[in-house]
Amino acid sequence: MALKMVIPKGKLYDKVSELLSDIGLTLVGDSRNYRPQLFGCDIEVKLLKSQNIPEMVALGQHDIGFAGMDWILEQEADVEVLEDLGFNPVKLVSCIPEEWDWNEVKQRKIIVASEYKKISAKYLDQLGVPYQLLRAYGATEVFPPEDADMVIDNTSTGSTIRANRLKIVDTVMESSTQFIANKSVLDDPEKRKQIDDLLLLMRGVLNGRKRVLLEMNCSEDSIDKVVDLLPAMRAPTVSRLYNADGFAIKAAIERKLIKDLLPKLITAGATDILETPIRKVL
Question: What pTM value is reported for the model?
Fold first, then answer.
């Protein structure tokens, strides 16, 4: 029986599609087509709004899917989180009008608007502030000051918050896209094998995106200095150059380290440096 996968509509669709492509699966369709085809495997795909995915996977309507941790927690969805993909990182933040004093606001009962009623209620209970919570259906930032004293909403850059003359007073939680599965489907050996294989390839792609392959040459006099600089996954590969004095060195390096590492390698005696993207690290 085919695996049933659910993918979020909207801006996350392209990132999921790219990830599937990088593991060798071709998604044919777009975010307006609710039933795209996934070629290269026996998986049925359907698109839903992000908010609906955790609950549908928990109910067993779909075997696997992609959803933000915010909506998993908001719906208290009983799903298995298989991997934090890191896509669409956002913060859930509490905001009040920029000219208000937060310490003064906390002294009275406040009206709070949010799409996240369960997360908000838990946060406000812990805060110990008397409140009335309103369910918002999008455009939460327009509520203050006339219709609410505070909003709890997600943000990636804070630009929408600032544009509506609000200020952040607290971070409620951080969220990013998770690869999730229905718990009972993991008891099916055939489907579990399919899911484990997908997960292995996804992790390989995600690890590959974090690294580049560095190749370089160096003389015998500088080999120790160059190798000592290389934070390889285990140890760099070193081999003698053909018919020449010196060595060829190869290592998978974290992408974020490259900017500072290259000048040091050159100073240590590395030459002919090549930097190559890595598709997968398994």
Answer: 0.88
27 shares its domain with 132:
no
Residue corresponding to tokens 């929408």: 160
Q: Are residues 181 and 71 in the same domain?
A: yes
Query: 18 and 69: one domain?
Result: yes
Domain that holds residue 219: 211-277
Answer yes or no: do 200 and 164 share one domain.
no
SS (H, E, C) the chain: CCEEEEEECCHHHHHHHHHHHHCCCEEECCCCCCCCEEECCCEEEEEECHHHHHHHHHHCCCCEEEEEHHHHHHCCCCEEEEEECCCCCEEEEEEEECCCCHHHHCCCCEEEEECCHHHHHHHHHHHCCCEEEEECCCCHHHCCCCCCCEEEEEECCCHHHHHCCEEEEEEEEEECEEEEEECHHHHCHHHHHHHHHHHHHHHHHHHHHCEEEEEEEECCCCHHHHHHHCCCCCCCEEEECCCCCCEEEEEEEEHHHHHHHHHHHHHHCCEEEEEEECCCCC
Residue 223: inside a domain, yes or no? Answer: yes
- One domain for residues 10 and 140: no
pLDDT digits (tens, 9 = 90+) for 93-118: 999 999 999 999 988 999 999 999 99
Give per-residue pLDDT as tens, 226-257: 999 998 777 899 999 988 889 999 999 999 99
pLDDT digits (tens, 9 = 90+) for 185-212: 999 999 999 999 999 999 999 999 999 9
* Any domain includes 282: no
Q: CA–CA separation, 281 vs 219, rounded Å?
A: 29
The total number of structural domains that make up the chain: 3
